[in-house]
Amino acid sequence: MRRLLCLLLLVFALPASAAGLLESRPSSTLGSINNSADFLPVREAFQLSLVESTPQSIKLRFVATEGYYLYRHRFQFRADPADVTLGAAKLPDGQKKHDEYFGDVEVYHGILDVELPRTDQRAFTLAVTYQGCADKGLCYPPETERLSIDGSGGPAQAYAWTWRELALFFLAGIGLTFTPCVLPMLPILSGVVLRGQVGGWRGFNLSLAYVLPMAACFALLGALMGLFGAQLNLQARLQSVWVLVPFAMFFALFALAMFGVFELKLPNAISSRLDRIAGRTEGGSLWGAAVLGVVSSLLVSPCVSAPLAGALLYISASGDALGGGLKLFMLGLGMGAPLLLVATGGAAWLPKSGPWLIYVKNAIGVLLLGLAIALLSRVLPGQVTLLLIGLLAGGVGLFMGALEFVYKPPRKRLGQLLGMFLVFYALSCWYGAFSGQTDPFNPIGQPRLVENAAQPSSINAWQTVSTPADLDRALAEARSSATPVLLDWYADWCISCKVIEREVLNDATVIERLKGYRLIRFDITASNAEQRALLDRYQLFGPPALMFFGKDGVERSDVRVIGEINATDFAERVDRANDRI
Predict the structure, then answer these.
(1) What is the pLDDT of residue 5?
(2) Of the residues 67, 111, 264, 365, which has the fewest C-beta atoms closer than 10 A?
(3) pLDDT, greater one: 366 or 9
(4) Quick one: what percent of the chain has pLDDT higher than 70?
(5) 3-state class of 163 per DSSP?
(6) Cα distance between residue 357 and residue 13, in whole Å
(7) DSSP character for 456?
(8) What confidence tens digit (pLDDT) does each residue in 457-469 have?
(9) pTM, whole model, 2 decimals?
(10) Which is more confidently placed, 175 or 430?
(11) DSSP label of 344
(12) What is the structure's pLDDT at 470?
């Protein structure tokens, strides 16, 4: 069971490290999705905010939620009134992608800062147009947001953080407490700060006086790193191989420290001086507790140094000083939460020190390696990334005793079984990598269906419409003739739409099972107000989407497909629809 913790953390690490593996388009093996709840509304997927407005420039910030990205060439910035002049937008280089339909494009993941030079000091409305897609295969129509820019050039504040992120940093702080170097210190700290008198308001106040300064020092460090990253525009520079590779090496180095290869700590001259300060500090008073809290934040143990350094690198990449300060403040509060528990008399609730702490430490090292692979996946070919993921999974599997064929107690047998699964997954990744696969969720891949040269002529029977009136008319005609309908939502700027058109709707098996259907394609390329209203009517965010209507003209919503799907899964979806029409 102790080793099971490593596997559970690895399960969370592998999807994160795999997020950057999808190359030119999402994989059709992701499967079918039949409801819009699997995708965020466009303004939640891509959050736009005004960071700063000065007489010289306007700074905007886009935050693409994990699993979503923005196209560089789809940005437009217009002023209203039109005679207000703006300079050319300063966009950093994006992540390069080659698509077989659109050619070479650049996309942005995560946080993107855009600067607009400004020469006119009048107040105006800034219209910002952007377009993005989801990794799962949904492309949003172009979206336009309007921001009011005042004439004084006053600053506006943007917050590149969410309450969920703060909660995650708090939980991470609690997790860092349960490491071999920190957890045994809790009784010592409680003895110095509280002088052995736990419980009551006195214990709570003293421990809080210790925890808050410690968290405040972390917050100051996070704010400085956020400010440092903003000045260097590190988010844009992270797209460069010259930055991604060193960062990945840093995380790998920190992982080795977590595995006990070496220790990260302050120089002896500094650490010994801090130890003397802590030794001379008088415990039992609020002032003494505060001083000890500050010293403790500086005298970080080797077990915390590597994850803390990784958090600082992440914050410096965000370029958000306020968010960085808040995140590390929550990290410090999380690390101090167990001390608060001890101070109020809850020491019995804390787990005891033991060998299981080593597994926590090793699990953090695995997460850091997963993060290093995630960074490298932006510059390495997908096959190489798949090899690295397999190497990580295989290493964890061997650590869990996958090949140790000796007698073990039942708990260790379960760990060995899970380790064998990871080794099998690693072998699949290596086989897939040498076979040209890039998808870690389907490393072996599926053989592509051979298209029949003598395909039925029904593939040419698609009726393309582009207005709601034409669509309503076509659906009414199908209903009057008791003909089932397949409605395909399509756009020229939708990569997944072209994938579905070529690889799914042209598949011989799919064509055979769609016999008797009226095939209607709604072209939403223009993305005008009328077409967007139709999206709202059908509760769609954008293409691609495939909808089935029965002979009675009613949609069979349980078989609706949103996002990319492969031919095999769609053929099964058609079978389900045929049973209900």
Answers:
(1) 39
(2) 67
(3) 366
(4) 67
(5) helix
(6) 19
(7) -
(8) 444 488 999 999 9
(9) 0.41
(10) 430
(11) T
(12) 93
Q: What is the mean pLDDT of residues 513-526?
A: 91
Superfamily assignment of 42-149 in CATH? Thiol:disulfide interchange protein DsbD, N-terminal domain (2.60.40.1250)
In the chain, where are the structural domains located?
42-149, 162-354+368-377, 457-578
Return the structure tokens found at 126: 């800034």
| Tens digits of residue pLDDT in 471-509 | 999 999 999 999 999 999 998 878 788 888 888 998 889
Q: Identify whether the C-beta of residue 72 lies closer than 8 Å to the C-beta of residue 105.
A: yes
Q: Sign (positive/negative) of CA torsion 210, 215, 220, 224?
A: positive
| Cα torsion 391, 394, 400, 404: sign | negative
The SS3 call for residue 347 is helix
| Average pLDDT estimate for 40-44 | 83
Provide the CATH topology of domain 457-578: Glutaredoxin (3.40.30)
Q: How many whole angstroms separate alpha carbon 294 and alpha carbon 297? A: 5
| CA torsion through residues 303, 304, 307, 313, sign | negative
Tell me which long-range contacts 425-428 makes (C-beta under 8 A, separation of at least 24).
425/390, 425/393, 425/397, 426/390, 426/391, 426/393, 426/394, 426/397, 427/390, 427/394, 428/390
pLDDT (0 to 100) of residue 289:
62
Does residue 306 contact residue 300 with C-beta atoms inside 8 Å?
no
Buried b (16+ CB within 10 A) or exposed e, 336-368: bbbbbbbbeeebeebeeeeebbebbbbbbbbbb
